[in-house]
């Protein structure tokens, strides 16, 4: 195998492996016992950040092996999907969420699924997933599939793993949450199990999400070294 | 001095390319002779020669054609001209070996 591609695969395995090891195995419990909840989260975040930087470096150094042609429509996928992703990200980080780390008690309050959670109960995970999948489609080469595919698998697979953990942690409060939310964005809305409350989501959050989109669009060459490729 | 389309340097290769923007396909077409008696790659891209779009499309096309990282490619001469020199960063003789297979399959190669 090409050396650059091999480095990327090793970095990808390290990134996915460390995430799964620290979030979904017994290691989490024993580390938390030793370091405390705070200490564990610091270790988890720093580990992830360092390995992610390594993953990004390996991705940008990897050879370009085309798998499908770049077309106008493939270039338009991220351009059209990212506004939803940035809104989910901003609203997700600024809305209290019972599925977030250490936030289980929120499932007991009157409204367990405020604002953006009526769209999906994992807004941040879906933001990352939409970002990754749309960029995978637009790039269409092997190293992009490995890089963005790993991130998509972790974030979207992560929603299922988090649901399993929260179901155990929340007990009887879990059905209260799932009754009015869905994992898949808009599914609970389309099924009529909840209503879209624009005011509750907050126009400010939507505006901030769109502003983030504009900033990322304009700063794309500075951040990635590549312009946004629109036809 | 007339020269081939690929010239090794200390830290990579310099490659002569003649680009046609606004074409039907993104494609590496072959190797042609230049008026000065040198040799150059011919390539076409669908992008227009505006805001560096054709240049970016060319570099992404070459990254795929030669299986190198996009960030290792840059236009060193002729960013605003049809006739360009593209630099590929890397170990020159490893790159030459990597490119030679691709090049012998091209018309005129």
Short description:
The complex is a heterodimer of chains A (231) and B (109). Chain A is mainly alpha-helical and 231 residues long.
Describe this structure in words.
The complex is a heterodimer of chains A (231) and B (109). Chain A is an all-alpha fold and 231 residues long. Chain A has 2 domains: 1-63; 65-224, no CATH class. Chain A contains 9 helices and no strands. Chain A has helices spanning 3-24, 26-61, 72-93, 123-139, 142-170, 173-180, 187-190, 198-201, 203-224. The longest helix of chain A is centred in the first third of the chain and has 36 residues, at 26-61. Chain B has 109 residues and is α+β, with helices and mostly antiparallel strands. The longest helix of chain B has 14 residues, at 53-66. Chain B contains 2 helices and 6 strands; from the N terminus they run E-E-E-E-H-E-E-H. Chain B is globular and about 35 Å long. The A-B interface holds A 2, 4, 60-66, 69-70, 141, 225-227, 229, 231 and B 26, 47, 52-53, 56-57, 60, 63-64, 67-71.
- Structural class designation of chain B: alpha+beta
Q: Count the helices of chain B. How many?
A: 2
| Distance from first to last alpha carbon of chain B | 20 Å
Q: What share of the residues of chain A does DSSP label as strand, in percent?
A: under 5%
Based on Cα principal axes, name the global outline of chain B.
globular
Form type of chain A: globular
Strand content of chain B: 25-35%
Helix content of chain A: over 70%
Average of pLDDT of chain B: 89
Compute the number of strand runs of chain A: 0
């Amino acid at each position: 195998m090409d050396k650059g591609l091999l480095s990327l695969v090793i970095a990808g395995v390290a990134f996915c492996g460390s995430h799964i090891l620290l979030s979904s195995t017994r290691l989490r419990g024993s580390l938390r016992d030793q370091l405390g909840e705070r200490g564990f989260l610091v270790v988890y975040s720093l580990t992830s950040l360092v390995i992610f930087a390594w993953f990004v470096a390996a991705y940008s150094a990897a050879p370009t092996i085309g798998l499908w042609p770049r077309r106008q429509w493939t270039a338009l996928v991220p351009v059209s999907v990212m506004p939803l992703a940035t809104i989910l990200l901003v609203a997700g980080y600024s809305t209290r969420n019972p599925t977030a780390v250490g936030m289980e008690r929120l499932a007991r309050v009157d409204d367990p699924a405020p604002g953006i959670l009526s769209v999906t109960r994992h807004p941040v995970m879906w933001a990352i997933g939409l970002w990754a999948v749309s960029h995978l489609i637009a790039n269409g080469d092997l190293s992009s599939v490995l890089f963005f595919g790993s991130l998509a698998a972790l974030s979207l697979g992560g929603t299922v793993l988090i649901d399993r953990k929260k179901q155990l942690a929340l007990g009887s409060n879990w059905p209260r949450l799932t009754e009015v939310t869905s994992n898949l964005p808009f599914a609970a809305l389309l099924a009529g199990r909840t209503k879209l409350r624009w005011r509750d989501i907050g126009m400010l959050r939507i505006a901030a999400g769109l502003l983030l989109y504009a900033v990322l669009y304009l700063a794309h060459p500075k951040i990635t070294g590549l312009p946004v490729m629109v036809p | 001095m007339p020269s081939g389309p690929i010239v090794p340097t200390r830290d990579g290769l310099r490659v002569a390319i003649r680009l046609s923007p606004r074409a039907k396909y993104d494609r590496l077409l072959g190797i042609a002779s230049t008026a000065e008696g040198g040799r150059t790659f011919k390539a076409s891209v669908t992008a227009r020669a505006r805001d560096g779009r054709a240049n970016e499309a060319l570099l992404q096309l070459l990254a795929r054609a030669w299986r190198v990282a996009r960030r290792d490619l840059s236009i060193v001469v002729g960013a605003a001209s049809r006739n360009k020199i593209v630099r590929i960063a890397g170990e020159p003789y490893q790159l030459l070996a990597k490119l030679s297979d691709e090049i012998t399959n091209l018309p005129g190669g």
